Structures are given as structure tokens and as C-alpha cells.
Amino acid sequence: RNMSSAGPEGRKKMRECDGLIDSLVYYIQGAIADHEPNDKATENCVCILHNLSYQLEIELPESYAQSIYMQRRNISSNDKTPGCFGTRSRKVKEKHQDTPLPEEKSNPKGVESLWHSTLIRIYLSLIAKSTRNYTQEASLGALQNLTAGTGPMPFAVARTVVQKANGLPSIRTMLHANHPAVKKTAVSLLRNLSRNTSLQNDIAREVLPDLVAVLPESVPGSDIACETTASVCYTLYNLTQSSSHNARLLLSADGLPKIIAISMNDSNMFSKASRAASVLLYSLWSHTDLHNAYKK
């Protein structure tokens, strides 16, 4: 577990180590099957996999990277260069988001397991069944790592989490966790998921009211709470930016007074949270059909 956080070279060596990742996955599967999601060894295994999934897409061996980005190039070359404005660039982005998960094999080995849907489901199962904070945080963090970035893999993993593995209910529960780091990681994962335009309505329907509920009444004092609040605001920004329906959902969840209060916090004008809330307010105002509702 310590070695897996030693940096890029350490991660690379461990990913290449024959049988190591397979053994970790095998152990966790056994723990879940035996209804023992809270043992210390399972926590260690998940924390190692969390670390090995960090910057995975960037650090993948060339053979994998080529197959992923070859698909991406083929998609892009079918369209003319998208302009700065209009729906064209959005269409290219949405097409790109439909790229299949790279090399999804029925019996993954080694590094292939790290992005495989089997392990994605294991993480979601641990989030739902484990009561150990470190296990929950590492499972959420691994999914956060896998959904970071703009390549085909993050978008495909996001689609698996939301649509194929029905992971939102488990993630939503973690928004109300007592442990600040677990809550922060759950929000960061949702922020990554919410960048995928094809999933935004599903996410808004399932978790938008909960996101509003975890917003504080004003800018919080601690750094971790401030970062969490900023992440919530940017997630809400993603969900409402191009959807008047989702903006109305935010309004009906009584989100506006909280967001205004966070944006206007005088004692900490330049905090991440205040800035994020201001960006969100500016975006919400772009829905002209809601101006009367906002004013009320």
C-alpha cells in the first residue's frame, strides 16, 4: 500500500508485476462473497488499486494507449473541424463519449482489470456494503481516478457507473457520510461524471436534490469543507448549464438562497467556494425563461 503511492515509476512497476493486480481483485471478490467487506486486508487491497488507477490513462502502456486513441482519432476524422460556437462541437463531443470501453475482455488480466466493468462493480459494491471510511474513500477515489480526463476511457467508465451498474444510489448515500474525506471524494466523483452530457439528466434526477442538501448556508471554515462546497457548485454548474429543466430542479430544491449566500461571503471573498458559487449563479441567469422564478 505504501509502495503504490511512491509515484509514476512505482505505479508502473506494480502494474506490470505478473499476477499482482489479479490477486488483489481476487482477494476483494472473496471478501465480498464471504460478507466481510470491512476487514483490514480488503481496505489495503482497495487502497493499492486506488493508487494504481491514478493517472492510468496517461501512464498506460503504448499498446493500450494506441488502441484507445486510434478509436478516438477515427471518430474525430469523420467530422470537419468543429467551430468555436454552435452545436457542431457538442455533436463531436457526444459522439466521442459513445466510444466503447477499450479492450473490455471477458477474462481481464493484470492492468486490463483496472478499468474493467467487473472491478467498477466491485468498487460500487464496497461503497454500498463497507462501513470502513478508508475502504469507502478508496473505492470512490478509484472511480474518481478512472473518470478523470477527457479520453474515451473516462467517459466509458462514467457510463458504466451510471447506466450499466446503477451506481448513483450508492454514491448518493456517501454524500451524507459523516467523514469529510468520504463526502469530498463522492462529490469529486460526481463532478467527473457530470461532465458527460449524455448522463447529466440521469445524474440530476438521482442526486441533484442531495447535492443541494449538502451545501452549507454560507462559506464553510475548513479547507476540506470549502473544497467540497466548490465541487458541489461546479457539479451543479455542469448539470444546469444547458438544461433549463435541471436549473428549475435546483430552484425547487431551495438551492438558490444557499448559492447566493456562499457567493456573497464577505469574510472570504476569494475562496474557491465563493468563486464557484458565483460562476454557478452567472450560468443560472442565462436561463432567461426562469428569470421571474428567480426574482420571486
From TrEMBL:
- Keywords linked to the UniProt accession: Cell adhesion, Cell junction, Repeat
GO CC, one annotated term = nucleus
Which cellular compartments is it found in? Cell junction
| InterPro entries recorded | ARM-like, ARM-type_fold, Armadillo, Plakophilin/d_Catenin
GO biological process: any one?
Answer: cell-cell adhesion
The UniProt similarity line reads: Belongs to the beta-catenin family.
Q: What name is this protein filed under?
A: PKP2 protein
